[in-house]
Design brief:
eight-stranded mixed sheet; alpha+beta; 19 strands; 8 helices; 416 residues
């Protein structure tokens, strides 16, 4: 990882958070022509969920916005090498979302119609086609599935390496071991005083990210952000040749998904009954329950040992949708969250946030309904939840925003 540089007295933009959303946002701001862009990261780039994700990139979104975010991110992963000289390791694997009830089938067909209207190459696969596409699944176990051959996955640590390279080559100032501690000043034409554990920077734009810690970051800036963190577990089985060419699968009812990985099968899960928090220990009891579900759907897994496993704290929002928008009442401050889909939506959210901050609009996705205004004081959203998201907890606890501090004098050098 690059060494942290000295903080400048002023910058065109400061991005809080060096995960997938924050880092790519800083890169896009720099590419758009901002001269001085700073990433303030409390630890090291990618140290949080960005390096512990499963890497799924699905354009089969449950809403039109999710479809567009997934499609833009996929295209970005495909053009990365030409643009920055390296890439995040995207592999096109195909993705099945199986149906087990007639109600599942009706919802899937409606979803397919929505996705096809946007131009996504998704189709209905019959039960027999599902068995042929993924012969490791229990024969006849589904009523069919939605299927998109263009869905795939990336390698999360390689994504961290890619955005690190992009930041360095584009000249973004990377301030690691630099904790955001609050805002001062009044924004507008004079800029914000961004306070950190290593000093203060006067910036015209401030982008608040932070993944599972975004609510805490927002509170430090005087903003209520309904976002939380919860444990997510991932395991990788021992190797078996049967998995190499099989499409990925998402069992929506259980929140269980799997894909090939290192010659074996990677599968991940979140417990909807677990309260929010940052527990990263392995929940062996829940893992055992999910192993039973996996054995029923993919019988071969009952014969295979687990080669490695890990748990990460990943972010979520009450409606399982991203946050892209201005911080209410704070001119020049913006908030961005991937809502638990950092690999799938992260680059698109980063680009849309950068566009919104610089231009007031974005052609990546319509951000009008994705801002903080959709939530009430208790964090309830006026939008319907994404119907094919991971089953994150319904409860959400987020800290109250701190009283906004009095304006402080700026350094002599300020952003015009």
């Amino acid at each position: 990882m690059p060494m942290s540089r000295e903080l400048p007295l002023s910058a065109d933009a400061v991005v809080v958070g060096g995960g997938t959303v924050g880092a790519w946002c800083a890169y896009f701001l720099r590419r758009a022509g901002l001269e001085t862009v700073v990433v303030a990261e409390k630890g090291h780039l990618g140290q949080g969920a960005s390096s512990r994700a499963a890497g799924v990139v699905r354009i089969q979104g449950g809403t039109a916005a999710a479809v567009r975010l997934g499609a833009w991110s996929r295209e970005f992963y495909l053009r990365q090498r030409a643009e920055i000289g390296t890439d995040s390791g995207f592999v096109q694997q195909g993705y099945l979302l199986p149906c087990f009830t007639t109600a599942d089938v009706a919802l899937a067909r409606a979803r397919i119609a929505m996705q096809q209207a946007i131009g996504i190459p998704v189709r209905w696969a019959t039960s027999d086609e599902v068995d042929a596409l993924n012969p490791t699944m229990a024969p006849g176990s589904t009523l069919g599935a939605s299927y998109c051959a263009e869905d795939g996955f990336i390698t999360p640590p390689r994504n961290v390496a890619a955005y690190t390279a992009a930041l360095v080559s584009s000249g973004v100032i990377i301030a690691e071991q630099t904790r955001f501690t609050g805002l001062g000043g009044g924004g507008g034409g004079t800029g914000w005083l961004v306070r950190t554990s290593r000093g203060e920077v006067c910036a015209g734009l401030v982008i608040l990210t932070g993944g599972p810690r975004l609510a805490e970051v927002g509170a430090l800036a005087g903003v209520n952000v309904p976002a939380g963190g919860v444990r997510h577990q991932v395991v990788v089985t021992e190797r078996h040749p049967a998995f190499g060419d099989t499409p990925m699968v998402f069992d929506v009812p259980s929140g269980l998904y799997w894909r090939p990985e290192e010659g074996g099968l990677l599968w991940g899960m979140s417990n909807p009954d677990e309260p929010p928090g940052d527990n990263r220990a392995i929940d062996l009891a829940y893992l055992s329950r999910m192993r039973e579900r996996m054995a029923a759907l993919v019988p071969l897994t009952s014969e295979l040992g687990i080669r490695r496993m890990w748990a990460a704290t990943i972010d979520y929002t009450p409606d399982h949708l991203p946050v892209i928008g201005p911080a209410p009442g704070l001119d020049g401050v913006f908030v961005a969250s991937a809502g638990g889909a950092g690999m799938m939506w992260g680059p698109a959210i980063a680009r849309a946030t950068a566009d919104l901050a610089l231009l007031g609009t974005s052609d990546v996705v319509d951000t009008a309904a994705l801002g903080l205004e959709r939530f009430d004081a208790e964090g309830r959203s006026r939008l319907a939840a994404d119907p094919i998201a991971l089953p994150f907890p319904e409860a959400l606890k987020f800290p109250e925003a701190l009283p906004f501090p009095e304006a402080l004098p700026f350094p002599e050098k300020t952003v015009s």
